[in-house]
Amino acid sequence: MHRNDAVVTVDTTGQKQKVTAFFDGSKPWQGDLYRAQDDYFAHVIQRRKAYAMEMIRALPGIPPGRVLDVGCGSGVYLEELLAMGFEAYGMDISEEMLAVTRSRLSAAVEAGRLHLAQGDVEHIPFETGTFDLVTCVGVFGYLLRDEAALAEILRVLKPGGYLLLNLTNMYSLSD
Q1: H-helix or E-strand containing 39?
Q2: Angstrom distance (rounded) from CA 94 to CA 24
Q3: Counting CB atoms within 10 angstroms of each CB, which of 41, 62, 139, 152 has the fewest?
Q4: Cβ contacts of 129 within 8 Å, gap of 6 or more
């Protein structure tokens, strides 16, 4: 971190490389956590997903529409969003996670209902005002700073669109 006239800059390159390497090599995050029955952390992750989907189902006026899942990982959220009727877009920093998603959801990719892109939350590779809904679950905990990521998410969100953003509290009493 460098301080220069009250402007703080943070070099995030090393952090992004660490996150990419972690998820490229993580078999549990490539889908197993969402199927495990007797693991506490898996239970927390599964509960978080169920709660997120419940909130999306309660939104007025959507689906249908376009949804972007930032940090889509193995595509478990995208799978449900597609089932709800969305045209779905997934973005992840890890090419390995995108490969898992491509494989798991190949029919939706081939049908043109699912579009995948490699990128990071600070540089989202989509046009301004594209999405009716942006989901970003479990991503912000890996960032060193939040400002650029939030600005990018808001940039790609349509005016009046919805953002589902998860900020994990590991000490939550609800888990």
Answers
A1: none
A2: 6
A3: 41
A4: 155, 156, 157, 158, 159
- CB-facing half-sphere around the CA of 86: CA atoms within 13 A: 27
Average pLDDT over residues 55-72: 93
What proportion of the chain, given as a percentage, has pLDDT over 90?
A: 58
Q: Is the dihedral of CA 120, 126, 128, 132 positive or negative?
A: negative
How far apart CA 136 and CA 90 sit, in angstroms, is 10
Q: Cite the DSSP H helix spans in the chain.
A: 13-24, 40-57, 76-83, 95-104, 106-110, 147-156
Q: pTM higher than 0.85 for the full model?
A: no
Query: At residue 167, does pLDDT exceed 50?
Result: yes
pLDDT at 9 over 60: no
Please list, in sequence order, all residues whose beta carbon lies within 8 angstroms of the beta carbon of residue 3, skipping any fewer than 6 positions away. Answer: none
Q: Name the residue among 84, 83, 80 with its Cα closest to residue 72.
A: 80
pLDDT at 28 over 80: no
Q: Which residue has the tokens 């007025």?
A: 60
- And the tokens for 34? 């969402």
